[in-house]
Amino acid sequence: MTIPASAQSRSEAGARFSPRAIERLLRPSSVAIVGASATPGALGASVLANLQRLGFRGAIHLINPNRAEIGGRPCLKSIEELPTAVDAAVLAIPRAGVLEAVAGLARRGVGAAVIFSAGFAEGGEAGRAEQREIAKIAAEQGMLIEGPNCLGFVNHVDGIALTFVESSRATLDGRPGIGIVSQSGAMACVLGTMLASRDLGVSYSISTGNEALCGVEDFIEYLLEEARTAVIGLIVEQFRHPQRLLSLARRARNRGKRLVLLHPGRSGAARESAATHTGALAGDYALMQVKVEAEGIVTVETLEELGDVLEIALRAPAPGRPGAAIVTESGAFKALALDLTEQVGLALPRLDDANAPALRAAVPAFVPVSNPLDLTAQGLVDPDLYRRALLALAQDKRIGAIALGIIQTDPATCERKFPAILEALRELHSAPLIVVAGLDEGAPVPEPYIRALRTLAVPYFPSAERAVRAIARLFAALSRTPLGPTEPLGRTGLPPAQGVIPEHRAKAFLGPLGIPFPAGRLVHTLQEAVEAADALGYPVVLKAQSPALSHKSDAGGVLLGLKDRKSLDSGWRKLHADLAQSLPDLRLDGVLVEVMARSGLELIVGGRNDPDWGAVILAGIGGVQAELLNDVRLILPGQSRQSIIEALRHLKCGPLLDGYRGSSALDLPALAELIERVGRALCEEPSIREIDLNPVIAYPAGQGVMALDALMVIKQPEP
User: Fold this and answer.
1) Which CATH number is associated with domain 601-714?
2) Under a CB-based contact definition with an 8 Å cutoff, are residues 706 and 697 in contact?
3) What Å distances lie between residue 318 and 241, 246, 253, 267, 429, CA to CA?
4) Bond preceding residue 349 cis, omega within 30 of 0
5) Is the pLDDT of residue 7 over 80?
6) Which of 206, 440, 603, 649 could bridge to 654 as Cys pair (CB 3.0-4.6 Å)?
7) What's the CATH class of domain 317-479?
8) CATH of domain 519-595
9) pLDDT tens, 463-504?
10) Could you tell me the CA-to-CA distances from 639 to 96, 635, 702 in Å, in that order?
């Protein structure tokens, strides 16, 4: 369990350490083990065994007040006996002694400390206070802290393991490796085992635990500059410094280093918000995901998928073309693949006799040219078919990746198929990304074939579905374009208030920024309401106005379609009577009289300035069913208008926007412009915590949009 976000400042930019400071931890020339032990299985004994097994050549200082020596190595009685400026120390001691030990290490000028002990920030207020004190002591002396509540790290580049998990030397042999940074030490170990089983090198595996002082961002920054690390796999439950992470993601993209993220907690409840639909719908996970993906981080949903994407990212060339092809030997799997690619959003360019002549010439006449391509069982009779098909697809400028899913059955079948596949791969000089996968997971594929594929930079997966999902994840990341700047709207004066800003004041602020609203007037008496309605024109709407009425219709605070003075009079009395019954202590700012807008498709457009992640816009199906249907997309300020329109088309209700069963196509450019303006307002006024426009009525093409209701939440910056 990791430290709660509330235990650290959300506005903190994040500690930054020099590469040399990080290297004193990850590449130490001297190590102290506080709590060294001769007992097999004890934490201190396991750390020493790892150092010896991996051939650590630096100085090792053992500290145990009850032993003169361990395994022939002398023991010091206390930390005070350490020589000055030891690079790293491991605290293999109970929690009760950790704070005092950290203070002692700081006095001796130790560069870094790895703390295994648990029971700190994850254990209650007393533990949180103690963890803060550990961080304070270390920061004052310039000492790094890994943990507490962590498993330490393994550096496979230099052969150093400061962990109690039994570690073996796994050299990279000159290959680039995968860096693992995980808040969970257990998951770091699991991922490392998975990657090793696929003959993938790991450069560093680092568990950060509670992150008292050093966090995932610090280690990402180091690994981005580390020459032997080509790809970084992240298992993170909570980013403590999101803005720094996004900056590092941009740097990784510029350096061509892929970050792949597994973020547990997808099913967690969204952040509660009593004020707006937007706050409830733009949940923490979805917000995190859209922000990191916009900066090029690949997100995955399972540990298996994390390993799959890391393997492709490390082993295979990056796709240089936009589309993918699937080659199989089963008509049924062809249909399954079509379902799967639609689900995961993987684009399959249409291939047919006319537009793919090389493929048409490569396959028998009875095999239809299509994508996915079903070769049938002909490969058993004509194994060269695999070679011809792969070469033809590799020449197609539309194809950037190929997933080849074959039926393997037994070693004899593999002997018929794999040599031709390998021959084709050897002939390809500027190959697209190719993944070979089995349709029959568990088939006894001879290991030499798998090794040969990997030697040719071709991943082998036991499941074709996994190959398709992993390729889709990478293609999605490659297809995203960097965000552009947001054009300022020009300040109009935000209300100097705190908390919920009712509709009439929100509209007074947003209207001059270009958000279209119905004509209206705030009134306080029935006579003023009559005068307003006469001036505006019937039919009109009455809406009660108060900061305490976030959802007016729930309390009877909205009356629609008042078509004349008589209905206005009765409506005025009903509105006040209903409010008096449901909310007897409510104080009104007044009543908003507005022109009754004509009907159209009801949408919601909202925005949120998250204290961690920054501004995000939400758009989707609106009205009172907004939270029930939860058909929304998150959009970021800086997205192009066309990308906003494409995001809207991916809504479940997307077909309605372009016209459905004879209905008119709606004014998508006007809707996209409104979304842009909401984003600009959020960026220009960071004190706006939330904006909620619900419903927004979308009209047929050329007729614009109209926001009928508006609500804002403001949090003024602290002095």
Assistant:
1) 3.30.470.20
2) yes
3) 29, 22, 13, 31, 14
4) no
5) no
6) 649
7) alpha beta
8) 3.30.1490.20
9) 999 999 999 999 999 888 888 887 776 655 676 678 899 999
10) 51, 7, 22
